[in-house]
Amino acid sequence: MSPVSPSRRTTLFAALLLPFLGSPLLAAEEGVIIPQPKVDLAAGEGIQTLVLAGGCFWGVQGVYQHTEGVISAVSGYAGDTKEKATYDLVSHGGRTNHAEAVEIKYDPKKISYGKLLQIFFSVVHNPTQLNFQGPDVGAHYRSAIFYQNDEQKKVAEAYIAELDAAKAFPKKIVTKLEPLLRGFFPAEDYHQDYATLNPNQPYIYFNDLPKIANMKKVFGELYREKPVLVRQAAK
């Protein structure tokens, strides 16, 4: 596995708080309780795909890997060309229009598109933060739904309007709706399953494990204890 630069994820506050790992003082932030969409996609036949961006892909992937009905959740890049879909380019803001994203394949008979969006807005990230999430700053950390067809776009638009009208958040949602024109490109192998493989890494401990804990708390009926991993699927 290739090393990840400490400056990329391990923030100063995390390093300073390392001695307190496991402390009850480091309680997870609460997930936001929001209504489910009034409009959803029809269940359809076969495995469906959704591409979401909500900050660092490690945490987004981690949450959906613990979600029942999800067949796979792969970290990667969306928003620009295949040639620019590398960690080196994406992590240096301004050199590409990619966002760190996650491709979610799911069984619509077990979980709906709308429910996946509800999880996205509730526990995956803060959709009112423009081009940053937690300690990560830049347009490559933007909140975005990369829709594949008009139906996905319409449901997402309607849901955002519903949440804003209900004042589900103290600020307006800034999530972008972007067409998945150029495709989704999986990230390098060492980014896959990162939250599961590195639970004591300071960035994961402080930023991503609370999201997974909130998934279990808020959406307990959809929480799977054993995550579905990329490495398992590849075998």
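The record above closes out task 2.4. Task 2.5 opens with a second protein, given below.
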Amino acid sequence: MAGEIALMCMGPQYVNTDFGSRGCLETLAGLNALARRWPRRDRNEPDRWVAELFDAARGGDVRARKAIEEAATFIGIAVANLILVFDPSLIVLGGAVAAQGSLFVQRVQRTVDRIVPAPTRIVVSTLGEEATLWGSLLVATTEARERLRPHLREEPLPV
């Protein structure tokens, strides 16, 4: 469970709340939380209804704007906490919500700027939906290399 920020507790009012395996941050700011805040669309195609949510917000829909603002605030608090602990040089956001671009990232950045004395730059991943795949491949190849390296040193390479 190391590094599972979805489980991060987002405030003292949530300490005694059982969020199950989703965790506090995921429950308050994940796709399902957005869908509950803006229940106007089919939840089966996140990329589609999230794009519609952001289009509605850009078009002035107050409920859509509020849903985005609430999620961005929770994400901003979590990002700020991570920045304060790890001091990264860059934060990369991914997923269907972050893929909508500047509207969400600006709101996350605004929250971070209120909390962190020297905020870190926040950008959107260019990997889109494939971010998890590429991350998994990187972990797998790194692990394979580490496991093979000792065996390769034991036997001389053929000439």
